[in-house]
Amino acid sequence: MSTQRKKLAILLWSATAERPELCATPFVHATAAAAFDCEVEIHFAGPTVRLLVAGVADALRPWPGVDTSIYQMMRQATNLGASLNACAMAMGALVAKDEVLIPEYAGTIAASAFVARTLDPEWATLVY
User: Fold this and answer.
1) For a FRET experiment, which of 9, 41, 51, 112 has its CA 20 to 30 Å from that of 74?
2) What is the C-alpha separation between 30 and 37, in angstroms, rounded?
3) Distance CA 112, CA 63 (A)
4) Phi and psi of 107, rounded to 5°?
5) Which residues contact 74 (CB under 8 A, 6 or more apart)?
6) What are phi and psi of 10, to 5 degrees?
7) How is the chain split into domains, by residue range?
8) Considering only CA atoms, which of 98, 8, 6 is closest in space to residue 54?
9) Over the stretch 62-77, which tens digit does the pLDDT of each residue have?
């Protein structure tokens, strides 16, 4: 019997628009996991929810000279099935009601959802 996990939950909390050099790795890892037919959830917490506002991640590059935007990296992950979910409290505090969100955004999720993933043996978790 295989004990290999087929589910991955990623929590973003320090990979913010102000630190684009920290944003590439979580989406590369999410894309890789999804390519391995893993169910992938990306949980945006605190100021990372700003990456879900249309235009924000598209304007970010992880390093000088890199043509691929953070938004393109996010889309690579979602094109393979990863879901982008945000903390409802952070969305309410940090995203204005009139701001447009990216179409890949799946919806709000409670902070307890990520905690539940960490306690579930079927799920692996990463924090960025």
Assistant:
1) 112
2) 11
3) 33
4) 135, 175
5) 27, 51, 57, 84, 102, 104
6) -115, 130
7) 7-127
8) 98
9) 999 999 999 999 999 9
